[in-house]
Design brief:
The chain has one domain. 69% of the residues lie in helices and 0% in strands. 12% of the residues are buried.
Length: 144
């Protein structure tokens, strides 16, 4: 029961984040208040749609959505670390009234918690995942 509650909580969070972002971007376009370049708008719309779709997929117990959510969460963590290390920078086109450092720290913590939770044995079993998430790929030096 606790496993299901955690899964539903994370799934609804993804749906909420994605939906709010989609609605906000669409409203800014309709009201002609968006100052974002077209490529940034497209990126934000696509990632918001992916977040929403993954949330619904995880809610349904879809293994592919489970795996994609873990993958994208790890990419987000890596990108935020690279931003903090000043290895990559954003042009400011994604900026909002919330300070970027607060958004980045919150995002890192959320996605670390998500990965920690979703790699627990009971959660993996819920989705029918049989592989060890870290060591699932065959390495060139491994024997069969």
């Amino acid at each position: 029961m606790r496993t299901r509650l955690g899964i539903v909580t994370f799934a609804l969070t993804e749906i909420l984040i994605g939906s709010i972002t989609l609605i906000a971007v669409i409203l800014s376009l309709v009201q002609e208040k968006s100052a974002k370049p077209p490529e940034i708008l497209i990126f934000v719309l696509i990632t918001a749609a992916i977040s929403t779709a993954l949330g619904f997929g995880v809610l349904k117990g879809n293994l592919s959505c489970y795996n994609l959510l873990l993958y994208f969460s790890s990419i987000i963590i890596l990108s935020k670390i690279l931003i903090f290390a000043k290895i990559i920078t954003l042009s400011g086109a994604l900026e909002t009234s919330i300070p970027s450092s607060l958004k980045n720290i919150t995002s890192i913590l959320y996605h670390i918690l998500l990965i920690f939770y979703f790699t627990r044995k009971s959660v993996k079993e819920h989705f029918g995942e049989r592989r060890n998430a870290i060591f699932s790929l065959k390495m060139p030096f491994q024997n069969d």
